[in-house]
Design goal:
This protein is α+β, with helices and mostly antiparallel strands. It has helices at about 75-85, 135-145, 150-155, 185-199, and strands at about 5-10, 15-20, 25, 30-35, 45, 50, 70, 105, 120, 125-130, 160-165, 170, 175-180.
């Protein structure tokens, strides 16, 4: 049975300081839900991202090609287990929406099913798959254990960035249509290459 293409949560954050290895670093990785199925507020989608969302380091996150970061809800059970094993949470503590730094917590689209240039058509906006997310030291700090980036690299559970093709609004609970692009390179394939080159 296919998982429906749906938005479970829309998440944003303002940039704030985070202490990492004794350094004070500005980051907006700590996203919080602003639209949920229980309260499906509409959030504006603009060329550089969602209303109310900061991008503290535009060289790494943000810009036209990385305006919105989406993460598959299907992977959150994996991170729940990993965090519990690392002593960062209880075994029964779900990973909250936004913890991965994602703007959109989605169902129905995994990295191997998302290809560069695929289009996600929502009721009031249109986004395009642009590139995989690469884990950084801020992600590791937020997750709270040293192997977090390595776990993302090994699992391939990276999520993907989206460019805004047509702005508008978006809300939790909405469905989206996946319109195939040229289908030459998948997010999963490109992520493997990027991780190999980084190592």
């Amino acid at each position: 049975m296919n998982t429906p293409h749906q938005v479970l949560s829309v998440n944003v954050a303002q940039a704030s300081p985070l202490m990492i290895d004794g350094r004070r670093v500005m980051t907006a990785i700590g996203k919080r839900p602003v639209s949920t199925p229980a309260q499906p507020d509409r959030i504006a989608v603009r060329p550089l991202g969602l209303e109310g969302d900061d991008q503290a380091d535009p060289e790494v996150h943000g810009g036209l090609s990385k305006a919105v970061y989406a993460y598959p809800h299907e992977h959150l059970a994996f991170w729940q287990t990993v965090r519990a094993q690392a002593g960062q949470a209880g075994w029964d503590t779900p990973v909250p929406p936004g913890l991965m730094g994602e703007n959109l917590t989605l169902t129905g689209l995994l990295e191997g099913q998302a290809w560069i240039g695929d289009v996600l058509k929502f009721p009031d906006c249109t986004l395009a798959v642009s590139e995989p997310r690469q884990p950084c030291y801020k992600f590791q700090a937020v997750m709270g254990f040293n192997q977090a980036t390595k776990m993302m690299a090994q699992s391939g559970y990276c999520g993907f960035y989206l460019a805004v093709i047509e702005g508008g609004t978006i809300a939790a609970g909405e469905s989206y249509e996946l319109i195939p692009g040229p289908r030459e390179v998948s997010i999963a394939e490109l992520f493997k290459v990027k991780m190999r080159n980084r190592d």
